[in-house]
Amino acid sequence: QVNYYSNSCPKAEEIIKQQVAELYHQHGDTSISWVRNLFHDCLVKSCDASLLLSTVRGVVSEQTSGRSFGMRNFKYVNTIKAAVEKECPLTVSCADIVALSARDGITMLGGPNIEMKTGRKDSKESYSTVVEEFIPNHNDSISLVLSRFQAIGVDAEATVALLGAHSVGRVHCMNLVHRLYPTVDPTLNPTHAAYLKRRCPTPYPDPKAVQYVRNDLKTPMIIDNNYYKNILQHKGLLTIDEELATDPITAPYVQKMAEDNGYFNEQFSRAVLLLSENNPLIGDDQGEIRKDCRYVNVK
Ligand code: HEM
Ligand SMILES: [Ca+2]
Ligand SMILES: [Ca+2]
Known about the structure:
Layout: H1 12-26, H2 29-43, H3 74-87, H4 94-108, H5 131-134, H6 142-150, H7 156-162, E1 170-172, H8 190-199, E2 212-214, H9 226-232, H10 239-246, H11 251-259, H12 261-276
Antiparallel strand pairs: 1-2
Helix pairs in contact: 1-3, 1-4, 2-4, 7-12, 9-11, 11-12
The site of one calcium ion has 7 residues, from loops.
């Protein structure tokens, strides 16, 4: 519900917003991470902070999945949680911190303000073994991507809007070189491909090296419709970005979002809400409020 913590922890949302803002001013890319976290957490079973569990005592973290490649800033979730715990111990779920930090991160990155419900509980397990059944790969087909989102109630228009998150952040060379070597993917804009080859000069980048390309060279730290302008010029970095611009189901939405940032913001807000409300754990018999977002509570 809206304002779930209004009695139990009236300052919760304010504290989270303030922490997100402070972290943004120290490390701007934290806000980018909060947006990607929402996608990776909510798509796997529900928005239940399963993503945040660390590998420990027989638990294998979802973060170890290949799909999580490049995810960063998890340690700063603990900073937010600590600030909330100080005000209201064992009251505010990590799942709501994932959702609200994404919401506030979007605002910090110049995206729309979104009113979000709260009251999600935290999972008692990690779903590391099934991450790949839910989260698409960067070279999956558009029809598979649409069906994965459809399965959690996110329609095609909303899926196109969510991919607008690739208007910020980066892609590591690891996820790019297959489009550059041995031959350049003919669907890539040739000028952009030449730039990408300068950024990623070898076909076998060291997976541990921090070699990457920014998604959006023009407004790299702003969530806006520039992503759609880029992909229409075939400057999308991932295969899925390129496909979004050309597939007959998604292309009309891409066109419209590229032309109208207001329409993009509207659809992006609607889509973030759909994503954030996927199958939450609610009620007293479901999930728990974790004390530390990295571990399930010990009995
Ligand atoms: C078809 C679906 C998607 C696929 C296959 C996909 C894949 C990827 C890949 C491969 C990266 C780059 C990782 C790296 O090399 O560091 C990335 C980055 C990112 N993705 Fe997606 N993504 C998808 C949808 C989404 C959605 C729905 C959101 C959020 C609403 C999202 C948010 C982000 C963000 C913010 C980054 C940049 C992260 C950073 O710079 O730290 N993605 N995505
Ligand atoms: Ca989850
Ligand atoms: Ca941008």
